[in-house]
Protein: DUF3098 domain-containing protein
Organism: Salegentibacter mishustinae
Amino acid sequence: MSKNQQPTDHKKYFIFEKKNYQFMFIGLAVIALGFILMAGGGSDDPNTFNPDIYNFQRIRLAPTLILLGFAIEVYAILLNPKK
């Protein structure tokens, strides 16, 4: 070690902890559930109309779950588990 260099203790640590990752996975699961509920509803015959595409599950519930999942993701990023 030269004269100008001083020993430094650079402690490496992760920004996120276990609690952050748990909330992130919960948020991803809620988003995935929203997309799964939104899928389907098509018709086998292109000449017939299937009114199931406009049901409550696809129009209200699924987008709400997706937005809720994104809110959980933001919370997981901003969460400070040390407090």
Summary: The longest helix spans residues 56-78. The chain is about 55% helix and 0% strand. The two ends are 39 Å apart (CA to CA). Residues 18-41+51-78 form one domain.
